[in-house]
Every structure is written in structure tokens, then in C-alpha cells.
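Per your request, structure below.
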């Protein structure tokens, strides 16, 4: 019931928006290295660092972490710049 229905719904939505979906090969997480790295960083710095009381607290802490991640924190892949600063310089 789960992933199959979600995948069909996502596929229908993407088709309606003229968005092509690209899938990585099974067992090849390196093909998705950027999101794998982000997921690991988020898990280590946020999810593993706190004991949450409720979903609202998770959302609040995540919102602040994302703001820092996207505005203040330098990224090696962006020549040591935060994503927003990199985007402004390369717009």
C-alpha cells in the first residue's frame, strides 16, 4: 500500500507539471551523493543531537537549521560560500 501508491501519485503530479523523474540505479547511492550527504548532515547535526517532545519542536529546530545551512554555513562544493551567497554571485 505504501511506496507504490506514493510513487504513482508523485509520477502523476510530475507528469501534470511536465517534470521528468530520474531514478538512481538500485544499490547505487553514489548516484545521489548530494542528497545522501545532506541527509547525513541533517541527521547528525539535528535529529541525533536532540530529544524532541513533539513534531512542532522538530519543525522549529529544522527551520532554524535550514536557515543557517542555506545562508551562513559555507559549503565546500560551492567554493566555500553559503548557497544563497553563491546564487547571488552566479545569477
Amino acid at each position: 500500500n505504501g511506496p507504490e501508491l506514493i510513487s504513482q501519485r508523485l509520477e502523476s503530479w510530475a507528469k501534470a507539471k511536465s517534470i521528468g523523474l530520474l531514478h538512481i540505479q538500485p544499490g547505487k547511492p553514489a548516484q545521489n551523493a548530494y542528497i545522501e550527504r545532506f541527509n547525513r548532515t541533517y541527521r547528525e547535526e539535528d535529529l541525533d543531537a536532540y530529544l524532541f517532545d513533539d513534531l512542532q519542536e522538530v519543525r522549529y529546530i529544522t527551520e532554524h537549521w535550514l536557515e543557517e545551512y542555506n545562508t551562513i554555513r559555507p559549503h565546500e562544493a560551492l567554493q566555500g560560500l553559503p548557497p544563497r551567497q553563491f546564487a547571488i554571485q552566479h545569477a
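Helices lie at 2-16, 33-47, 55-71, 83-89.

Regards,
D.
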